[in-house]
Design goal:
The chain is of the alpha+beta class and 163 residues long. It contains 8 helices and 5 strands, in the order αββααβββααααα.
Length: 163
């Protein structure tokens, strides 16, 4: 199948195939949506940022590496990198749509704007410290917001959403 036919296929998840030097060989539509059209270029976005910053990054070795909660051009994604010794194939799951759906489902529980901000970061997999840093608030304030969120959201929903 040619490169153009590959790009026209509808995609739910991003798929990117790179040479071991990082040159993008092919991308599907979702990957282009997430990272931009990088075909023919050496990628330095998302999952490849870690590789560039850390030469000993596991994706350099043959095998499989999982990265959770990384950002690529404003998209929150999980990535699975597979190095088969010839190519580096990346599978991207756009987590922002999942976070947005869960936030919508939490709307009946009357969360304040501040609680919604904390919830969004929590659903994105951020730690309390990362939430505090991102929102420029103290750890104590994060804990207060989390306590309020947990009081408002039924236990069954908390278990499903905040694992």
């Amino acid at each position: 199948m040619g490169q153009d036919a590959e790009v026209r296929q509808p995609a739910c998840h991003g798929i990117c195939v790179k040479a071991l030097d990082g040159t993008v060989l092919s991308q599907n539509l979702k990957c282009i949506e997430i990272c931009g059209d990088m075909r023919g270029q050496i990628c330095g976005k998302g999952c490849m940022l870690n590789r560039a910053a850390h030469p000993d990054f596991p994706a350099v070795d043959e095998g499989v590496c999982h990265l959770s909660g990384i950002w690529s051009d404003g998209h929150l994604v999980d990535a699975v990198l597979i190095n088969d010794g010839e190519n580096l194939t990346t599978y991207l799951l756009d987590k922002q749509s999942t976070v947005d759906r869960k936030l919508f489902l939490l709307s009946p529980y009357g969360l304040s704007d501040a609680e919604k901000n904390v919830t969004e970061l929590l659903l994105a997999g951020r730690t309390n410290r990362e939430i505090a840093t991102a929102l420029y608030i103290s750890m104590s304030t994060v804990r207060t917001h989390l306590g309020n969120i947990y009081k408002k959201v039924p236990k069954e929903i908390r278990i499903l959403f905040f694992r």
